[in-house]
């Protein structure tokens, strides 16, 4: 009896359990169908339990420091080659700067230079404060007399020599005459045994030259001569024209004007002076007919 009662109880429990399972399956089937019919139904994967998002601590990335653009090393500037001292330039108004006076300069310093040369007897016309051709001739004559380089420019050496120079001395001891110093390439206008004026000259090269089928010597004869004749104009001969020559030798050797009077012997034998200088000689009557000319 006891066994039968137990079996009945078990059967009833199974029946109840079966019914519960059936109800549960029916309910689950309905939920599944509803989910399948819903257009927004999540996929099976979406039905997984949603885990709260893992909040990782923010990682602070230090800001990148942008390096400033690299500045290219400037190209190496080569040391400029050593140059000679630049020529003196004239400041506004023409006043020279730099301690050297040269052709083209103008102003008070040039005027003082001209006055100093004139006081020593170096002819340059009327001092006007402009370093022109006649000032070059006078400076060159001074440099010749003093045994200096003959460049016609007044640098420190020439300026120092000018400061302590005196008037040159004549070879003659008295009388009025013209002296031509071939060694120094200058002409002295001598009055009463004293050098009154000095001119830059260029005499004969002392070299042979060829003219009209014959060879001649370009010499300026040394000796004591006299002015024999003169020509007031351009006297054209075998060697070209001579400007206002005053002849003192039978071979046609004269003191005459020329456009080029270098600092060295360059003529065929005559004594070259500037055209302005020969005009001045004529105007002053320094070489009258019969006057003495000494060449040494």
State mean pLDDT (0 to 100 scale): 80
From the alpha carbons, calculate the radius of gyration and give it in angstroms: 59 Å
Number of domains: 3
The helix/strand order is HHHHEEEEEEEEEEEHE
Low-confidence stretches: 21-93
The major beta sheet can be summarized as: 5 strands, mixed
Question: Could you give me the name of the CATH homologous superfamily of the largest domain?
Answer: L,D-transpeptidase catalytic domain-like
Shape by Cα distribution: globular
Tally of helical runs:
5
CATH topology of the largest domain: L,D-transpeptidase catalytic domain-like
Strand order of the largest sheet: 3-2-1-12-6
In terms of DSSP E residues, the strand content is 15-25%
**What's the CATH class of the largest domain, please?**
Mainly Beta
- Fraction of residues in H or I helices: 25-40%
Number of strands: 12
Question: From the coordinates shown, what is the CATH architecture of the largest domain?
Answer: Beta Barrel
In whole angstroms, how far apart are the ends?
Answer: 185 Å
Q: Which class of secondary structure composition applies to the elements?
A: alpha+beta
């Amino acid at each position: 009896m006891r066994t039968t009662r137990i079996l009945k109880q078990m059967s009833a429990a199974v029946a109840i359990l079966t019914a519960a399972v059936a109800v549960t399956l029916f309910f689950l089937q309905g939920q599944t169908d509803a989910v399948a019919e819903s257009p927004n139904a999540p996929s099976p994967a979406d039905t997984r339990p949603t885990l709260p998002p893992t909040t990782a601590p923010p990682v602070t990335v230090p800001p990148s420091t942008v390096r400033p653009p690299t500045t290219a090393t400037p190209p190496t500037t080569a040391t400029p080659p050593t140059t000679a001292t630049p020529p003196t330039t004239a400041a506004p108004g023409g006043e020279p700067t730099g301690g050297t006076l040269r052709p083209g300069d103008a102003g008070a310093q040039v005027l003082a230079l001209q006055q100093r040369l004139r006081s020593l007897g170096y002819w340059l016309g009327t001092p006007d404060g402009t370093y022109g051709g006649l000032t070059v001739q006078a400076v060159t004559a001074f440099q010749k007399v003093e045994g200096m380089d003959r460049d016609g420019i007044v640098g420190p050496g020439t300026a120092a020599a000018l400061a302590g120079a005196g008037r040159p001395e004549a070879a003659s001891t008295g009388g009025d005459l013209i002296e031509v110093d071939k060694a120094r390439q200058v002409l002295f206008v001598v009055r009463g045994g004293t050098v009154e004026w000095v001119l830059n000259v260029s005499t004969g090269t002392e070299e042979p030259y060829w003219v009209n089928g014959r060879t001649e010597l370009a010499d300026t004869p040394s000796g004591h001569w006299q002015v024999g004749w003169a020509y007031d104009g351009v006297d054209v001969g075998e060697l070209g024209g001579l400007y206002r020559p005053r002849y003192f030798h039978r071979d046609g050797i004269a003191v005459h004007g020329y456009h080029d009077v270098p600092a060295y012997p360059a003529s065929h034998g005559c004594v070259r002076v500037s055209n302005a200088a020969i005009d001045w000689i004529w105007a002053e009557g320094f070489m009258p007919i019969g006057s003495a000319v000494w060449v040494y």
